Amino acid sequence: MVEAVKTGKPVDAAATLKGRTIIQGVVFGFAFGFLLQKGGVGTYHILIGQLLFQDWTVVKIMVSAIIVGMVGVFALHHFGMAKLHIKPTRLGSNILGGLVFGAGFALIGYCPGTAAAALGQGSWDALFGMAGLVVGSWVYAESSGRLKQTVETWGDLGKLTFDAALHVPRKLLVPAVAGMLAIFLAVLHVLVER
Q1: What confidence score (pLDDT) does residue 121 get?
Q2: How far is CA 119 from the centre of its chain?
Q3: Does the chain have fewer CB atoms within 10 Å around its N or its C terminus?
Q4: Handedness of CA 143, 147, 151, 157 (dihedral sign)
């Protein structure tokens, strides 16, 4: 315990760090929601338009985020400013989770992030998606013990990354993939604007 200079009372460093982490999470959450809303992906007709291949706003935002995130995380890791926390590739749970997520997205027209942004801008229909998220999380938590013994063992490939799977150095792969995605965005923009 450390004593506060002004009050002389003990200060719990772990509690202070936890409080700071929560505040940072709230600030970044609001910023993320603001950017989702400003990008238009908190709007039902834009999300449904993407699912019907009529509006490409969501793909443009997601691919842009992948490029920025990939280059940013690589740079931070390369310079020792961040650690990678690679999750294991488990084909069974990835495929099943993707199907459940996709079905929920198609049925309600929102994913968890866009539902929160939509609710924040006053779209009350997003409450159904948020309720489904809470129920789905509870169901997953209740069945996680059984899932760890079954679905999560199917196709367990370990902590797999693209550079390791392709046997290409990360410092070559990241710029190459970022460049290909940038070209994809440019071509998509030209095709959509016609």
Answers
A1: 84
A2: 18
A3: C
A4: positive
79 secondary structure, DSSP code? T
Are the beta carbons of 120 and 33 closer than 8 angstroms? yes
pTM exceeds cut of 0.90: no
- Show the low-confidence residues of the chain (pLDDT under 70): 1-11, 194
Distance of CA 52 to the CA centre of its chain: 22
The residues spanned by each domain of the chain are 1-39, 41-193
3-state secondary structure (DSSP) of residue 41: coil
At 46, list the tokens.
């834009």
In 40-169, which residue ranges form alpha helices assigned H by DSSP?
Answer: 44-51, 57-78, 91-108, 112-120, 126-149, 162-166
Distance from C-alpha of 77 to C-alpha of 75, rounded to nearest angstrom? 5
Q: SS3 of 53, please? A: coil
- Integer Cα distance of 175 and 74 in angstroms: 10
Residue 150: CB atoms within 10 Å:
11
pLDDT of residue 35: 85
Mean pLDDT of the chain: 87
Give the CA count within 13 Å in the CB-facing half-sphere of 92. Answer: 11
